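User: What would this chain look like folded?
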Amino acid sequence: MSQPRVLMYSTAVCPFCIRAEQLLRARGVAEIEKVRIDLDPARRDEMMQKTGRRTVPQIYIGDTHVGGCDDLVALDQAGKLQPLLAGTN
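Assistant: Here's the prediction, encoded as structure tokens.
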């Protein structure tokens, strides 16, 4: 089974985006689709509509909105990130 798509709304200089990406890569994610909201204001509006949040990163794994970096770390520490990445949540 292929890995679910990982989508991350981010900006160029965002330490939380970098941390989130490092964690995802450490968990075996090869491809992260990044949406640079600092370069594309329309995508920022899209992110805020979809998530109700204005901070980055905002991370989706498949159709699941994980949230930001802290949410991703919490999910990992709870042992729920790997199953989500495996598509077996």
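Residues 75 and 81 are 5 Å apart (CA to CA). If you want, I can go into more detail on any region.
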